[in-house]
DNA sequence: CTGAAAGCGCTAACAA
DNA sequence: TTGTTAGCGCTTTCAG
């Protein structure tokens, strides 16, 4: 009331004490009201709430969590911020967080390349009530530290080898299977596959889906067409380049384990003078927003990224609420999104045309 | 040492006390060592650091900031996470933050549409040492709250009407001027302009640059070709659509105040059966990563987004270190990036061809 | 149902 | 140079 323009000393102008004074109760009671404790007389509660309103009180999260309460903050650990993959997931996360009145700390995992478990430790020590980990991170070190502390966390698009973590993922196997089959239906038999880092479960699942589809289409897996990547555009570029230059006969289609490496593959193909999709078909995985911007528009396997973020938050909050719930695993459906980067296998081109089986595949066309 | 698997009770296992005990000093001394206080005996410091190392101590930020210290956290308030604009800026921010050992809270400004100043208040109340605000936010309400508390903050790509805030921006006027001139050099005279929200300074500056260039090129400003947008793709689409359908003669070039609305403009143009750049030229502003992915690749005015993030952090930390420094304003250079979305004005098309002045403009070609 | 009091882990005077 | 001692604002027993 009489704060005549003196230099602000306290960071926090209006505290729980002020509210207590204004409403004539002890500050413990104010705390009760604020934390929704049920055994408070209705009239008291009202008086307190009025004071809160009137004074414009906002809780100090640090104090709250120091004292043992919830900080109402969750941490999000992401590999980087380069592409819209993370952005899209984060949008889902944010939506759900708003609803639950939580705030978000953003951590980037490249921060402490040397001492990662210490880093995670710091996070867990700190002010977050729980942690969301977005693929593709190197998991083991992190997760051990977390589990040891019984700290709530959820993995997004990246399963845990030990099956001991809560996970939100998509039908990676299925998605890869469908994509591969689609390529096969277009007449392709020399389908290269660029994997993700095979330390990551989802990357392995996609690889398996690819191989399974090949098997079902009676196409033998040619190991020289399967190369381990790391979900980076640059790597996708390099792999495709070498695939195109040194494998004979070269692949007529490239299935990249994520859109980013598919972009790299497109770059490489173009650089080799190939037309997409006429000379070579390229398919990706994720369906990040850029996929429909590139030329030609990328055919890809859509993951419901935003939804994955939402679900992850729900799971995490659930876990924060009820510590010690057994880890859950949610798998959302992927969907083949057909755009412009894949075409029928062209026999008339000057290639060592081999056993071209007639496919009978219908020409799917969507989006 | 002997923490035989009992249920974790304290969140924080090893505190400053433990370190004190282990190194045989008072915990105040430990605090001094940790905060880099200079008058500590070398040997003491070493002993403490050893204990820290050995015990794997990590500071509790909440306690620290509650007690009046730095929280080593800064807040980043962004409008959304849809595009890579924010991602790119954030990358710069993150880089600089790592260096300074700061962490990041991510706030989205659409969170409390009703009560924004309260929201900002909560942030300022909370655990952040300072705040970074990314355009285009509605400024006034926010900033007043912040300034009133003498809370450190820096605006990114968005100047303050009152000139009382620290700002990192780019040469908006200049960039828009060059882009417009470039279009004029290509022979265009009917150049539409899609603005940003004109409440934002940078949007106004771009508009001014556009008009200035037109004036210098002896092209009269036609107000029906200047339409206020809001930096959204959808809006860019709608504006362009109506521009193309209801203005006669229609523009032969569209200058969108940011890349996102330029994308929208491209969509609209295509939908009207126009070829880019043959039938219509489109130019953007920002040069977000997507700009080089779209078809055709977008000619645009590049803002050094990543660098802007870095600079903003430096300014903010400076401000946190020395409260009460007068607000600074840093302006970084933009650069015209010529790609494929702009072409020479075609007179031979069935249009009301008018005063086509010969331009003598050289055909710039880059990237 | 409500108040009193003990901290949470740390920083910052103030002494020594 | 180092130790002692208040709190920071809040949650949580424990008593009324």
Structure commentary:
- 2 copies of one chain form a homodimer.
- The first copy, chain A, is α/β, with parallel strands linked by helices.
- Chain A has 3 domains: 16-59, lambda repressor-like DNA-binding domains (434 Repressor (Amino-terminal Domain), Orthogonal Bundle), CATH 1.10.260.40; 73-170 and 306-332, 3-Layer(aba) Sandwich (Rossmann fold); 172-303 and 335-365, Rossmann fold (3-Layer(aba) Sandwich), CATH 3.40.50.2300.
- Chain A has helices at 16-23, 27-34, 42-55, 61-66, 84-100, 116-125, 139-148, 172-185, 201-216, 233-246, 259-271, 305-321, and strands at 73-78, 103-108, 130-134, 153-156, 166-170, 191-194, 226-227, 253-256, 281-286, 299-302, 329-332, 335-337.
- In chain A, the strands form 2 sheets. In chain A, strands 2-1-3-4-5-11 form a 6-stranded parallel beta sheet, with helices on one face. In chain A, strands 7-6-8-9-10-12 form a 6-stranded mixed beta sheet, with helices on both faces.
- In chain A, strand 1 (73-78), helix 5 and strand 2 (103-108) form a beta-alpha-beta unit.
- The longest helix of chain A has 17 residues, at 84-100.
- Chain A is elongated and about 85 Å long.
- The termini of chain A are far apart.
- Mean pLDDT of chain A is 85; it is low at 1-10 and 348-367.
- The interface between A and B is large, with 51 and 51 residues.
- Strand 2 of chain A pairs antiparallel with strand 2 of chain B, so a sheet runs across the interface.
- Chain A binds a DNA duplex (16 and 16 nucleotides) through helix 2 and helix 4.
